[in-house]
Write a structure and sequence with these properties.
nine-stranded mixed beta sheet; BirA Bifunctional Protein, domain 2; five-stranded mixed beta sheet; 409 residues; Rossmann fold; alpha+beta
C-alpha cells in the first residue's frame, strides 16, 4: 500500500477528548476516526487490517476446538427477550424501537435468546449434542458513559460462542477447552493472561470467569500467584499468600478482554430447548457462553505495546509486516519486489515530506520493521525493528528471506 494513497493519515495531535493511551494513539496514527458520537467509531483502513488479523486468530482457535461459525441477526424481537425476562431487566438497558408495523425490536447486545431459540428448533436428540456455535458480529450496548476509545463503546464487534450439552459434566469439560483456547488467543496477540473468577452480571449463570490481560495502564487490578495458576480480581481478594500453594502473591494492573459463563439451563428452560435422551426421556439442554470484544482487544494491544513515540504492534496483528521509506531515491522497484515476494508493505512514497516526519510517522504507526532506502544505503536496505534501536544493512534478498522466515516461525 502506498502511503500517499492511504485513506486516513497521521494527525499532529490526538483529539482533545482522548483520555487513554490507546484512544490517543489509535486516532493520531490513523487507525480509527474521531468518534462519530459518544462511543461510536469508524475503523480506518489501517485499523481494519489489525481488526481482521485479530478476528482471524480468534476464528482459528474457535475452529480448532470444534466450533462452527454462523451469523445471527442484530435485530431481535421483543418476544424472545420477554421469554428470558430480560426485556425490562437488562443492564445496560436495551436499545428499543418500534418498526412501521408497531412491533417492538431491539438491536442485540448479546445473543443468548436468539441462539437458544435457534437450537431449540434444530436439536432434537442426544445424538445432536454436544454442539458449539459462534459468530463475530456487531453489538450494541446502551452504556451510560462511553470512554477510553475502543475500551468502552456503545457499538462494537464481539465473538460470542455458545455451547450446548446433555449435562453439566460435558459442559465442564468444554468450558475448560474454551479457557485453554482463550489463553492461546491472547498469547498470540502478545499478552500474558490471568483467568479469574468473576460475577455473571446480566448474562447469568453461577460459574463465570474473566480473562485479564496484564498491562500497566489497566483499569483493573489482579492478585496472582507467580508459581501456580491461581489468580483473582484484587477487588474480591487481597490475600498475601496463594491459597493453593502458599507462595507470596503479586498484584498487577490488567484489562478484561474475555468473559466465559456456565449458563446451565438458565435460557434453555425459558426458551424451551430440550432433547430426547437414550432412554426416550425429554430433558433440558445445558449451555454455556463465551465472549471476546475485538475492538477492546485491539485497544488493549496498544495499551500494553507502546512507547513515547507511538504504537509497537506485535507481528501477529500488525497491519503490515514492513514500513518502507524512500529518502530522495526511487523506492518503487523494492516495493514491487517485496509485494511480489508476498510481503505486506506500507510504502511511504511521499516526495514533499521530510525524513524526520517520515520516521516519526513510522514510529507512531508502529509496524514491526522499518526499511529505509537512501543515498547513504546505496544498494542495500536499512533494517530497523520498531522495538529496537540498532539498525543493519541488508540486501533485498536477505530482507525477503528474513521476513519469510519470521512469517513461518
Amino acid at each position: 500500500m502506498r502511503y500517499s494513497l492511504l485513506f486516513g493519515k497521521t494527525l499532529n495531535r490526538p483529539p482533545k477528548e482522548a483520555e487513554t493511551v490507546s484512544h490517543k494513539l489509535l486516532t493520531q496514527a490513523g487507525f480509527i476516526d474521531r468518534q462519530l458520537t459518544a462511543g461510536i467509531y469508524s475503523y480506518l483502513p489501517l485499523g481494519w487490517r489489525v481488526f481482521k488479523k485479530i478476528e482471524q486468530i480468534i476464528r482459528e482457535e474457535m475452529n480448532a476446538i470444534g466450533s462452527q461459525e454462523l451469523l445471527m441477526p442484530a435485530l431481535q424481537p421483543k418476544e424472545l427477550w420477554e421469554k428470558s425476562d430480560r426485556w425490562d431487566h437488562m443492564d445496560p438497558p436495551l436499545f428499543k424501537f418500534k418498526d412501521r408495523h408497531e412491533k417492538y425490536l431491539t438491536i442485540g447486545p448479546t445473543h443468548e435468546e436468539v441462539i437458544t431459540d435457534l437450537v431449540a428448533r434444530f436439536v432434537k436428540s442426544y445424538k445432536d449434542l454436544p454442539l458449539a456455535l459462534y459468530h463475530i458480529q456487531d453489538k450494541f450496548r446502551n452504556e451510560m458513559r462511553s470512554s477510553g476509545g475502543l475500551l468502552r463503546v456503545r457499538e462494537f464487534f464481539m465473538k460470542d460462542l455458545y455451547s450446548f450439552h446433555t449435562d453439566e459434566k460435558d459442559l465442564d469439560k468444554f468450558y475448560l477447552r474454551v479457557a485453554a483456547a482463550y489463553k492461546k488467543i491472547f498469547s498470540r496477540c502478545g499478552f500474558e493472561t490471568k483467568m479469574v473468577e468473576a460475577s455473571s452480571g446480566p448474562i447469568g449463570g453461577d460459574v463465570s470467569h474473566e480473562f485479564m490481560n496484564l498491562c500497566e495502564t489497566g483499569e483493573d487490578s489482579v492478585v496472582y500467584c507467580p508459581k501456580c495458576d491461581w489468580a483473582a480480581n484484587a477487588e474480591k481478594s487481597s490475600v498475601a499468600k496463594c491459597p493453593k500453594c502458599q507462595t507470596a502473591t503479586k498484584v498487577v494492573k490488567a484489562i478484561e478482554n474475555g468473559h466465559i459463563f456456565q449458563l446451565k439451563t438458565k435460557y434453555t428452560e425459558k426458551l424451551g430447548a430440550y432433547y430426547i435422551d437414550k432412554k426416550g426421556n425429554k430433558k433440558l439442554i445445558t449451555s454455556g457462553c463465551y465472549g471476546i470484544g475485538l475492538g477492546r482487544l485491539m485497544a488493549t494491544v496498544v495499551e500494553a505495546h507502546h512507547d513515547e513515540r507511538g504504537i509497537i504492534w506485535p507481528k501477529s496483528v500488525a497491519p503490515y509486516q514492513v514500513h518502507l521509506i524512500a529518502l530522495n531515491v526511487p523506492g518503487d522497484k523494492i516495493y514491487k519486489e517485496l509485494e511480489k515476494a508476498g510481503i505486506e508493505v506500507l510504502y511511504d512514497d511521499r516526495e514533499e515530506v521530510s525524513a524526520g516526519v517520515k520516521f516519526a510517522d513510522a514510529d507512531l504507526i508502529g509496524i514491526p520493521v522499518r526499511l529505509v532506502v537512501s543515498d547513504k544505503t546505496g544498494d542495500k536496505i536499512e533494517w530497523k525493528e520498531r522495538a529496537k534501536s540498532q539498525t543493519e544493512l541488508l540486501t533485498l534478498g536477505q530482507v525477503v528471506d528474513k521476513l519469510k522466515n519470521e512469517k513461518t516461525a
